[in-house]
Every structure is written in structure tokens, then in C-alpha cells.
Design brief:
Layout (H helix, E strand, L loop, with lengths): L10 H17 L2 H8 L15 H9 L18 H13 L6 H14 L2 H11 L4 E4 L14 E6 L2 E12 L6 E6 L6 E6 L5 E5 L9 E11 L4 E3 L4 H37 L1 E2 L2 E2 L4 H30 L4 H25 L12 H13 L4 H12 L12
Parallel strand pairs: 1-4
Antiparallel strand pairs: 2-3, 3-7, 4-5, 5-8, 6-7, 9-10
Helix pairs in contact: 1-4, 4-7, 4-8, 5-6, 5-7, 7-8, 7-9, 7-10, 8-9, 9-10, 9-11
């Protein structure tokens, strides 16, 4: 099926974006964001989960957390382009919330295609939050060897081990856990407050998110919480990963647009040598390069989102392209935004630091540009033969 004009981005998406801009300006502008997550500059502070539950409640009342949930499960059943448009605005606002993790969990549950997964989709439709606990200590989510094991006794299972680099666990009601068995990995739903679950917060630079590794000690899983049977978990994650990469890329594109607009405005108003600094080519040209990289990343992102809706066979390739482009853009725009704010750019009081840290975190989350280009090379060129010079 061919892609529609403008990636299927139409009036519905425009109205959603307009309302999202108004919402975030009212409830999550830069001053409120700084007050919420930037009140403590102590580098030795303990990890915190900082978010506004009242703002999140208002978002759920608007149905934003259920956009990707199918209608048969009680959600909005919107196309991926619509969801990506909202995620872009959330990234532009630097929003501390479980929106991205819940949306990504929704796509994993949809990929399960099981009645049990449908029940948990209904929980998200009832405004519960979720996140993915699928990464091992090495940072891999594509490996069949997870650091969590599931041992079955009849139809029930016992989980032991650790899931690493879990995003927004302090904001989540339940986790989608990948655990190994003799038949291969399966996926299991675990409540955040289940007996045997311990959330160990990680110290990260990004103040708009929380991260943790989660310990599972003799956590009992009933058959109702088995989302994907042993041996099928990796296939489910592979099926959902294009959507996960696309939505993360959308968040990064929104944050990059904030960096561009803020830096350009500063270059227009900051005067040096009797001229705005934006007059000088050494400042002007890199800001234009920021704009070009953002436009390129947005094009890849919406192309991937449209593929999820209309060309699912192409979605894995397009999503890797989107994440590679967005990661490169995030690194470049973050560096330029700090540099062109001069002596104040790296200070705690400057809003730029919040987006810098969010972008650098997102840049490597689920693989940076170099990683995804290597994966794309395997698709278009083929794997590097064993023993070749590039492997030595």
C-alpha cells in the first residue's frame, strides 16, 4: 500500500497539535518545568521521580495516554502519525510524564496479539501506566539472553533476576518484563507493587525522567499475566520496536525544535560588538544547520510513522533511519544550543541544560545513530563476513 499525501498528516493531527501546544504552555512551560525538576542543583542528590500528577490526570482526561490503544480495548485507536504528532509536542515541552513509556508499552501489548495482552490494553485504556523492562545489563534488548529468568510450575511461573535501564518505573503501574526460559524469552506483566519487586533508582543526568534497574525475587506470575509465551517474546519485541523507535524519535524532534527556536531567539537578542550575535556567520550558519538536521529527522520520523500505518513491511527499516537521524540531530543541536548561549549556556539556571540532558539521554536510548546505521548496513549490504578486516 502506497503512503498517502503528507504521510497522512491531516486536519485531525493539526487540531491535536494546536491543543497540545496550548495545554503544555499552560501547564508545563519552561518556568514550571524548571521549578518541578530543577530546584535542586546538588550533583550528589539522590535520584528522584519528579512529575506533576495533576497535569498527568488532565492529560488522561483528554485521552492522550490511550491514543494508540485499539478501540476494541477501549482506546482511541489513532494512527501512528497522530500519536507521533502528540509525542513531538510532548518532547518540545520536555514533559516529565509516563506518556512515552506507556505508549511504547501499548505497542508491545498490541504486538502480542493475545487475549491476555488485550486485558492489559484495557488497563491502559482505564488510565493505568506501564513501562518496558526488557533490557539486560549490557544494554541489549535484542538478545535472547535476558537477566531475568522464568521457571514454570504448571501454568504459573516464578521470575528471578534484574531488568536494567527501565524508563520511568516510578511513574508506572505495571511493567512488561522479558524473561528467559528453556524455550526462549517470554513477556510477562508484573505489577509495580507486586511482592518480590524492588525498584532501585539509577542516577542519570536527565532530570525529566527517572530510570532504575528492577530486581525480581521469586515473583509469582499467574497465567493471566503471561503476555507472550516462552519462545515468542523476542518476536513480539521485534514487531513493536519500529513503533518504539518512531515515538522516541518524535520526542527528540520536538525537543530539537525547542532547542532551535530558543537558540535562534537568543542569537537575535544577545548583542556583542554592537550587533546581535546572529549577525555573524559563525553563529548564523550552524543555527541553519540545526534547522536542516531537525527537518531531516522529522521527515524520517513521519515517514516511519506513516509506514506503521500503511507499509508495515517497510517500518523496521524506516524506523531505524528515523532513530539514526534523530540521534545525530540531538547531539548536534544540544551542543550548538549550549555553545551559542555563551557563558550562561552551561549554567544550572539556564533552561537549555534541561533539554541538553534529555536529548543526550534519548540519543543513546534504544541505540544511537551509529548502532542503527550498522543495522541498516546489514539489511542493505549484508552482514560483515567473519574474519574480514573490519572485524579484526
Amino acid at each position: 500500500m502506497a503512503q498517502p499525501k503528507d504521510f497522512g498528516y491531516g486536519m485531525e493531527e493539526q487540531l491535536l497539535v494546536t491543543e497540545a501546544k496550548k495545554f503544555f504552555k499552560k501547564y508545563n512551560d519552561e518556568l514550571k518545568l524548571m521549578e518541578l525538576v530543577g530546584s535542586n542543583p546538588d550533583p550528589h542528590r539522590k535520584p528522584e521521580c519528579l512529575w506533576d500528577r495533576n497535569t498527568w490526570k488532565k492529560m488522561t482526561e483528554l485521552g492522550w495516554s490511550t491514543l494508540a490503544v485499539p478501540r476494541e480495548a477501549g482506546g482511541e485507536g489513532m494512527q501512528a502519525v497522530t500519536v507521533a504528532a502528540l509525542m513531538e509536542e510532548a518532547g518540545r515541552a520536555g514533559l516529565p510524564s509516563p506518556l512515552l513509556s506507556t505508549v511504547n508499552s501499548t505497542y508491545v501489548l498490541c504486538a502480542c496479539k493475545t487475549p491476555r495482552a488485550m486485558e492489559f490494553l484495557k488497563k491502559i485504556a482505564e488510565n493505568q501506566t506501564a513501562t518496558l523492562a526488557v533490557t539486560n545489563r549490557k544494554g541489549s534488548w535484542e538478545s535472547k539472553d535476558t537477566d531475568v529468568t522464568a521457571v514454570f510450575s504448571g501454568q504459573d511461573a516464578i521470575l528471578n533476576g534484574s531488568a536494567w535501564y527501565v524508563q520511568d518505573p516510578g511513574k508506572s503501574d505495571f511493567f512488561i518484563v522479558s524473561a528467559s526460559t528453556e524455550k526462549g524469552p517470554g513477556l510477562y506483566a508484573v505489577l509495580a507493587d507486586a511482592p518480590g519487586v524492588t525498584i532501585v533508582p539509577d542516577s542519570i543526568l536527565d532530570l525529566t525522567r527517572d530510570q532504575a534497574h528492577i530486581l525480581f525475587k521469586d515473583v509469582k506470575i499467574t497465567k493471566e499475566a503471561i503476555l507472550a509465551e516462552p519462545g515468542k517474546g523476542d518476536m513480539v519485541l521485534d514487531g513493536a520496536m519500529p513503533a518504539i523507535l518512531t515515538m522516541l524519535s518524535a520526542d527528540m524532534c520536538g525537543a530539537g525544535e525547542w532547542q532551535l527556536q530558543t537558540t535562534a531567539e537568543y542569537a537575535r537578542t544577545r548583542v556583542q560588538f554592537d550587533r546581535p550575535i546572529g549577525f555573524f556567520q559563525a553563529v548564523k550558519h550552524p543555527i541553519v544547520n540545526m534547522m536542516i538536521m531537525i527537518d531531516c529527522a522529522r521527515s524520517h520520523m513521519f515517514n516511519a510513522a506513516c509506514a506503521l500505518d500503511h507499509e508495515p513491511d517497510q517500518a523496521p527499516v524506516f524506523a531505524r533511519m528515523a532513530k539514526a537521524s534523530a540521534s545525530d540531530m540531538a547531539g548536534f543541536c544540544s551542543g550548538r544550543s549550549v555553545q551559542y548561549h555563551g557563558g550562561m549556556g552551561f549554567t544550572w539556571e539556564c533552561f537549555v541544560q534541561l533539554y541538553f540532558k534529555r536529548q543526550i539521554h534519548s540519543q543513546v536510548l534504544y541505540g544511537d545513530g551509529r548502532y542503527h546505521r550498522a543495522k541498516l548496513a546489514d539489511v542493505f549490504i549484508g552482514p560483515v563476513p567473519s574474519g574480514s578486516p573490519s572485524q579484526q
